[in-house]
Amino acid sequence: MNIEAIEKAYRRQARYYDLYFGALFHRGRKAVIDRIGCRPGEKILEVGVGTGLSLPMYPDDVFVTGIDISPEMLERARRRRERDELDNVTELRLMDAEQMQFADDEFDKVVAMYVVPVVSNPKNLVDEMYRVCKPEGELFIVNHFQSQNPLVGRLEQLISPLSAMIGFRTNLCLDNFIQETDLDVIERSGVNMFGYWTMLQARNIKPPVIEELVSMPASAGYAG
Ligand SMILES: C[S@@+](CC[C@H](N)C(=O)[O-])C[C@H]1O[C@@H](n2cnc3c(N)ncnc32)[C@H](O)[C@@H]1O
Q: Which residues make Cβ contacts (< 8 Å) with residue 128, sequence separation at least 6?
Protein backbone atom coordinates (compact mmCIF):
# COMPACT_ATOMS: atom_id res chain seq x y z
CA MET A 1 0.00 0.00 0.00
CA ASN A 2 1.56 3.32 -1.02
CA ILE A 3 0.48 6.79 0.06
CA GLU A 4 -1.30 7.49 -3.24
CA ALA A 5 -3.37 4.30 -2.96
CA ILE A 6 -4.26 5.14 0.67
CA GLU A 7 -5.26 8.71 -0.18
CA LYS A 8 -7.33 7.49 -3.09
CA ALA A 9 -9.08 4.81 -1.00
CA TYR A 10 -10.05 7.30 1.73
CA ARG A 11 -11.03 10.03 -0.74
CA ARG A 12 -13.54 7.49 -2.04
CA GLN A 13 -14.63 6.28 1.41
CA ALA A 14 -14.81 9.61 3.28
CA ARG A 15 -18.44 10.32 2.45
CA TYR A 16 -19.71 6.88 3.56
CA TYR A 17 -17.12 6.11 6.24
CA ASP A 18 -19.27 6.94 9.28
CA LEU A 19 -22.18 4.94 7.93
CA TYR A 20 -20.13 1.78 7.30
CA PHE A 21 -17.53 1.95 10.07
CA GLY A 22 -19.09 4.21 12.71
CA ALA A 23 -21.11 1.68 14.71
CA LEU A 24 -19.07 -1.34 13.56
CA PHE A 25 -15.83 -0.05 15.17
CA HIS A 26 -17.42 1.96 17.98
CA ARG A 27 -16.81 -0.49 20.82
CA GLY A 28 -13.12 -0.76 19.97
CA ARG A 29 -12.72 3.03 20.04
CA LYS A 30 -14.53 3.20 23.37
CA ALA A 31 -12.41 0.35 24.78
CA VAL A 32 -9.22 2.24 23.90
CA ILE A 33 -10.35 5.54 25.40
CA ASP A 34 -11.54 3.80 28.59
CA ARG A 35 -8.22 1.99 28.78
CA ILE A 36 -6.15 5.16 28.32
CA GLY A 37 -7.31 6.42 31.72
CA CYS A 38 -6.78 10.02 30.62
CA ARG A 39 -5.55 12.32 33.39
CA PRO A 40 -6.38 16.05 33.44
CA GLY A 41 -4.00 18.13 31.35
CA GLU A 42 -2.53 15.20 29.42
CA LYS A 43 -1.64 15.62 25.76
CA ILE A 44 -3.05 12.86 23.56
CA LEU A 45 -2.14 12.30 19.93
CA GLU A 46 -4.44 10.26 17.69
CA VAL A 47 -2.83 9.27 14.40
CA GLY A 48 -5.11 8.47 11.45
CA VAL A 49 -7.97 10.23 13.22
CA GLY A 50 -10.13 9.91 10.10
CA THR A 51 -13.52 11.60 10.35
CA GLY A 52 -13.00 12.07 14.10
CA LEU A 53 -15.52 9.50 15.31
CA SER A 54 -13.54 9.03 18.54
CA LEU A 55 -13.13 12.73 19.33
CA PRO A 56 -16.35 13.24 21.33
CA MET A 57 -15.35 10.33 23.59
CA TYR A 58 -12.25 12.00 25.10
CA PRO A 59 -12.72 13.76 28.44
CA ASP A 60 -12.95 17.57 28.33
CA ASP A 61 -9.84 18.09 30.44
CA VAL A 62 -7.24 16.55 28.08
CA PHE A 63 -5.71 18.15 25.00
CA VAL A 64 -6.28 16.08 21.86
CA THR A 65 -4.35 16.42 18.60
CA GLY A 66 -5.47 14.45 15.56
CA ILE A 67 -3.59 13.90 12.32
CA ASP A 68 -4.53 12.21 9.06
CA ILE A 69 -3.13 11.85 5.56
CA SER A 70 -6.53 12.24 3.87
CA PRO A 71 -7.82 15.81 3.46
CA GLU A 72 -11.36 14.50 2.87
CA MET A 73 -11.43 12.47 6.10
CA LEU A 74 -9.83 15.30 8.09
CA GLU A 75 -12.33 17.83 6.78
CA ARG A 76 -15.10 15.73 8.32
CA ALA A 77 -13.22 15.60 11.63
CA ARG A 78 -12.96 19.42 11.56
CA ARG A 79 -16.69 19.75 10.94
CA ARG A 80 -17.38 17.39 13.84
CA ARG A 81 -15.14 19.48 16.13
CA GLU A 82 -17.10 22.63 15.21
CA ARG A 83 -20.51 21.00 15.38
CA ASP A 84 -19.91 19.27 18.75
CA GLU A 85 -17.90 22.22 20.15
CA LEU A 86 -14.98 19.99 21.06
CA ASP A 87 -12.73 22.66 22.57
CA ASN A 88 -10.36 20.01 23.94
CA VAL A 89 -9.43 19.06 20.36
CA THR A 90 -6.64 21.56 19.97
CA GLU A 91 -5.31 20.59 16.54
CA LEU A 92 -6.40 18.58 13.50
CA ARG A 93 -3.55 18.48 11.01
CA LEU A 94 -2.89 16.96 7.62
CA MET A 95 0.24 14.93 8.28
CA ASP A 96 1.85 11.60 7.45
CA ALA A 97 1.99 9.54 10.64
CA GLU A 98 5.09 7.78 9.31
CA GLN A 99 6.98 11.12 9.20
CA MET A 100 5.48 13.34 11.84
CA GLN A 101 6.33 17.01 12.17
CA PHE A 102 6.20 16.90 15.98
CA ALA A 103 9.20 17.16 18.29
CA ASP A 104 10.35 14.15 20.31
CA ASP A 105 8.51 13.38 23.57
CA GLU A 106 5.58 15.76 22.94
CA PHE A 107 2.66 13.55 23.97
CA ASP A 108 1.65 11.57 27.06
CA LYS A 109 -0.32 8.98 25.11
CA VAL A 110 -0.32 8.11 21.40
CA VAL A 111 -3.27 6.29 19.87
CA ALA A 112 -3.79 4.51 16.53
CA MET A 113 -7.30 3.20 15.90
CA TYR A 114 -7.72 0.99 12.83
CA VAL A 115 -4.63 2.55 11.24
CA VAL A 116 -1.76 0.05 11.46
CA PRO A 117 -2.99 -2.23 8.61
CA VAL A 118 -3.61 0.87 6.50
CA VAL A 119 -0.23 2.63 6.48
CA SER A 120 2.55 1.88 3.98
CA ASN A 121 4.97 0.65 6.65
CA PRO A 122 3.60 -0.31 10.10
CA LYS A 123 7.09 -0.36 11.67
CA ASN A 124 7.77 3.24 10.59
CA LEU A 125 4.43 4.23 12.10
CA VAL A 126 5.19 2.63 15.47
CA ASP A 127 8.75 4.06 15.51
CA GLU A 128 7.25 7.51 15.03
CA MET A 129 4.62 6.88 17.72
CA TYR A 130 7.48 5.99 20.11
CA ARG A 131 9.48 9.06 19.13
CA VAL A 132 6.75 11.64 19.77
CA CYS A 133 5.61 9.94 22.99
CA LYS A 134 7.16 10.89 26.34
CA PRO A 135 9.56 8.24 27.69
CA GLU A 136 7.11 7.22 30.42
CA GLY A 137 4.10 7.47 28.09
CA GLU A 138 2.01 4.76 26.49
CA LEU A 139 0.88 3.65 23.04
CA PHE A 140 -2.60 2.29 22.28
CA ILE A 141 -3.43 0.39 19.11
CA VAL A 142 -6.64 -1.23 17.96
CA ASN A 143 -7.21 -3.02 14.68
CA HIS A 144 -7.75 -6.36 13.06
CA PHE A 145 -4.85 -8.79 12.75
CA GLN A 146 -4.91 -11.96 10.71
CA SER A 147 -7.31 -14.47 12.24
CA GLN A 148 -5.94 -17.50 14.14
CA ASN A 149 -8.82 -19.54 12.73
CA PRO A 150 -7.18 -21.47 9.84
CA LEU A 151 -10.19 -21.11 7.53
CA VAL A 152 -10.76 -17.40 8.17
CA GLY A 153 -6.99 -16.74 8.08
CA ARG A 154 -6.74 -18.46 4.69
CA LEU A 155 -9.65 -16.38 3.38
CA GLU A 156 -7.99 -13.17 4.62
CA GLN A 157 -4.78 -14.24 2.87
CA LEU A 158 -6.71 -14.88 -0.35
CA ILE A 159 -8.32 -11.43 -0.42
CA SER A 160 -5.09 -9.62 0.58
CA PRO A 161 -4.34 -8.58 -3.07
CA LEU A 162 -7.43 -6.34 -2.77
CA SER A 163 -5.82 -4.34 0.07
CA ALA A 164 -5.18 -1.22 -2.00
CA MET A 165 -8.79 -1.14 -3.12
CA ILE A 166 -10.42 -1.67 0.28
CA GLY A 167 -7.92 0.57 2.08
CA PHE A 168 -6.33 -1.87 4.58
CA ARG A 169 -4.31 -5.09 4.77
CA THR A 170 -6.30 -8.17 5.70
CA ASN A 171 -3.32 -10.38 6.57
CA LEU A 172 -1.22 -8.51 9.15
CA CYS A 173 0.15 -11.07 11.61
CA LEU A 174 -0.03 -9.93 15.27
CA ASP A 175 3.03 -11.87 16.49
CA ASN A 176 5.22 -10.62 13.62
CA PHE A 177 3.98 -7.08 14.19
CA ILE A 178 4.87 -7.16 17.90
CA GLN A 179 8.26 -8.69 17.17
CA GLU A 180 9.17 -6.25 14.40
CA THR A 181 8.08 -3.16 16.32
CA ASP A 182 9.50 -4.26 19.70
CA LEU A 183 6.20 -3.29 21.32
CA ASP A 184 6.32 -3.75 25.07
CA VAL A 185 2.71 -4.92 25.32
CA ILE A 186 1.18 -4.76 28.80
CA GLU A 187 -2.45 -5.43 27.84
CA ARG A 188 -3.99 -7.26 24.92
CA SER A 189 -7.70 -7.93 24.49
CA GLY A 190 -10.29 -8.76 21.85
CA VAL A 191 -12.79 -6.02 21.01
CA ASN A 192 -15.78 -5.37 18.72
CA MET A 193 -17.87 -8.17 17.23
CA PHE A 194 -16.69 -11.64 18.37
CA GLY A 195 -13.49 -10.03 19.69
CA TYR A 196 -12.30 -10.18 16.08
CA TRP A 197 -10.25 -6.97 16.52
CA THR A 198 -7.38 -6.59 19.00
CA MET A 199 -6.54 -3.76 21.39
CA LEU A 200 -2.92 -3.38 22.48
CA GLN A 201 -1.58 -1.17 25.25
CA ALA A 202 2.19 -0.78 25.27
CA ARG A 203 4.74 1.03 27.42
CA ASN A 204 6.99 3.49 25.68
CA ILE A 205 10.29 2.27 26.99
CA LYS A 206 13.08 4.22 25.38
CA PRO A 207 16.64 3.02 25.82
CA PRO A 208 18.77 5.61 27.65
CA VAL A 209 20.71 7.83 25.25
CA ILE A 210 24.46 7.25 24.93
CA GLU A 211 25.45 10.24 27.19
CA GLU A 212 23.27 8.83 29.97
CA LEU A 213 24.95 5.46 29.59
CA VAL A 214 28.42 7.02 29.70
CA SER A 215 27.61 9.04 32.85
CA MET A 216 26.04 6.00 34.55
CA PRO A 217 28.07 4.38 37.37
CA ALA A 218 29.41 1.01 36.19
CA SER A 219 27.42 -0.75 38.91
CA ALA A 220 24.11 0.60 37.50
CA GLY A 221 24.37 -1.44 34.28
CA TYR A 222 21.87 -1.47 31.43
CA ALA A 223 20.27 -4.69 30.42
CA GLY A 224 18.31 -3.29 27.42
C1 LIG B 1 -9.68 2.84 8.78
S2 LIG B 1 -9.48 4.57 8.91
C3 LIG B 1 -9.58 4.80 10.69
C4 LIG B 1 -10.13 6.16 11.06
C5 LIG B 1 -10.40 6.39 12.54
N6 LIG B 1 -9.20 6.20 13.34
C7 LIG B 1 -11.52 5.53 13.06
O8 LIG B 1 -11.44 5.08 14.22
O9 LIG B 1 -12.50 5.33 12.36
C10 LIG B 1 -7.74 4.77 8.64
C11 LIG B 1 -7.32 6.23 8.59
O12 LIG B 1 -5.89 6.27 8.59
C13 LIG B 1 -5.49 7.31 7.70
N14 LIG B 1 -4.08 7.07 7.31
C15 LIG B 1 -3.61 6.10 6.52
N16 LIG B 1 -2.27 6.21 6.38
C17 LIG B 1 -1.90 7.29 7.10
C18 LIG B 1 -0.68 7.94 7.34
N19 LIG B 1 0.47 7.48 6.83
N20 LIG B 1 -0.67 9.03 8.12
C21 LIG B 1 -1.81 9.51 8.66
N22 LIG B 1 -3.01 8.95 8.46
C23 LIG B 1 -3.07 7.85 7.69
C24 LIG B 1 -6.50 7.21 6.57
O25 LIG B 1 -6.53 8.38 5.78
C26 LIG B 1 -7.79 6.97 7.34
O27 LIG B 1 -8.42 8.16 7.69
A: 47, 97, 98, 99, 100
